[in-house]
Design goal:
With 134 residues, the protein is an alpha+beta fold.
C-alpha cells in the first residue's frame, strides 16, 4: 500500500510541488491523485499537506495545519497588484478577495490569512510579482 489522498483535498497542489518523484498529479481546486507506481513512500506529501488529506501506508491520516500553524501565508502588496484576478480565480481555498481601490481607481486583491494554506499558487500565477509568502 502507498500514500493516498482523501476527499479532504482541496486541490492546492502543494503535495505535487514538493513530491521528489513527481508521483502526484491533479488540477488546482480538484482533488489530486498519487500514482502508486511512482510513489517511493518518502512521506513528503504527508508532511506538507495543509489540510490533513494524506493517509500513510499504515492508514494514519496526516495532521491538518491549523490557524496557529507557523506555515507561511500569502501577502499581496496592493501597490503592485494589477487587479487581474488571476490569484482570486486560482486559489483552491478561496482565500483571496477582490477590493475596489477607490472611486475612480481599479481593484486590488487581498488575502484572508485565516483561510490561506500557504500553497503558493497565487504567487506563481501573479503577473506583477505582488504576492509573497511570509
Amino acid at each position: 500500500m502507498t500514500y493516498k489522498i482523501t476527499d479532504a483535498c482541496v486541490g492546492c497542489g502543494l503535495c505535487a510541488k514538493k513530491c521528489p518523484e513527481n508521483a502526484i498529479e491533479g488540477k488546482i481546486k480538484v482533488r489530486f491523485e498519487i500514482d502508486p507506481f511512482l510513489c517511493m513512500e518518502c512521506g513528503t506529501c504527508f508532511q506538507v499537506c495543509p489540510r490533513g488529506a494524506i493517509v500513510d501506508p499504515q492508514g494514519k491520516a496526516s495532521v491538518p495545519k491549523g490557524k496557529k500553524s507557523k506555515e507561511r501565508k500569502a501577502t499581496i502588496d496592493a501597490t503592485f497588484c494589477a487587479g487581474c484576478r488571476n490569484c482570486f480565480m486560482n486559489c483552491p481555498q478561496e482565500a483571496i478577495a477582490v477590493h475596489k481601490k477607490g472611486f475612480l481607481s481599479g481593484v486590488h486583491c487581498q488575502v484572508n490569512k485565516s483561510a490561506c494554506v500557504g500553497c503558493g499558487n497565487c504567487m506563481e500565477i501573479c503577473i506583477t510579482g505582488a504576492i509573497t509568502l511570509s
